[in-house]
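INFO batch 0412 | record 1 of 1 | parsing
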Amino acid sequence: MKRGLELIEESIKITHELGGKVLTGALYGAFGKAKAPLSAKGRANIVASLKDAAQMAAELGVDLGLEVCNRYETNVINTAADALSLIDDIGAENMFIHLDVYHMNIEESDFSRPVRLVGDRLGYVHIGENHRGYLGSGHIDFGSFFSALADIRYEGAITFESFSSAVVMESLSSDLAIWRNLWDSGEALATHARSMMQGWIKASRV
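INFO prediction complete | emitting tokens
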């Protein structure tokens, strides 16, 4: 617990020193498949630690985001409802929810209700295909997701996240189980992703 809090505080300081205003991700625990559900004591430790981290971040003008990740990466928050409950218990105004459609595809029943549930507490978005490859080549329902973002008037960052064994360093590939070469040109991937995202944003605002 102590080492985890120290790591977050160090990250907040670096973010501030670089001129950043946002630090987001799985700030609530170690990465990896847990052997058991989160205990009441473990959750209480997380709440206490993040209260301290949020206070420090607020003093430096940094907002903290909690990314909702799938069950194979954490046992802390796996759904939008889990994240809302945790943030409510922390009670910090500079803390927001970070949704990622890759994880939503595993844990949520659809791609629109979680967005509407989170509402104005959504502060950051990751998009990516179910297989981590080119946008539009998998089965993620981006149409309903972007429509939900438009419904809640989301104006924050939307970041495309994709991985390929041809590009990602070996240690990260192992951590994320990226065993396939899904692409080898980052420029072509990014150009395509931008075009797809612009199309979905435009269609959602009609």
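INFO post-check: The chain has a mean pLDDT of 95.
INFO record closed
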